[in-house]
Design a protein that fits this description.
single chain, elongated, 146 residues, mainly alpha
């Protein structure tokens, strides 16, 4: 997608459809890719760059690592919005801590009192895949990062 970013959208769509293997994909996957291309074209260059970098990061993971990241993020997305914000903040804070301090906080009564079992499981899942998640700034509108 990045290779064709200087082309108008219709030309990008033709280039996408001419990529090897594109026509072998299920129709719904092809449509999802077309929709994503249209969505990317509506973003600022900075937003687009971040999305493409994250996509590239995911492509470098092994299939089990990708599945682990997807599962952790799916759990996170399943939380109510207000709780998602708290979990994201805790994740950012925990990610900054050295491992012994992180473990002490995760075992603390304060932590257990502040987060439900589901939220603690979600945080544990996110922390397990933390090395695979890209570091992002809070100002970029994403849920995680430094």
């Amino acid at each position: 997608m990045d290779r064709h970013s200087n082309m108008p959208l219709p030309e990008q769509q033709r280039a996408l459809e001419n990529e090897p293997g594109f026509r072998d994909l299920p129709p719904q996957t092809q449509q999802r890719m077309r929709d994503r291309l249209t969505q990317l074209n509506g973003m600022t260059p900075e937003q687009r760059r971040r999305i493409l970098e994250r996509t590239e990061d995911m492509e470098h993971l092994t299939p089990p690592q990708r599945q682990q990241v997807r599962s952790a993020l799916e759990q996170y997305r399943g939380l109510p919005e207000d709780r998602r914000r708290l979990v994201a903040r805790a994740f950012r804070d925990l990610r900054e801590m050295p491992q012994p301090q992180r473990q002490a906080f995760l075992s603390s009564d304060r932590f257990r009192g502040q987060f439900s079992d589901q939220e603690r499981n979600t945080l544990s899942g996110l922390l397990a895949v933390e090395p695979y998640l890209p570091v992002q700034r809070p100002s970029d509108g994403t849920a995680f990062g430094k």
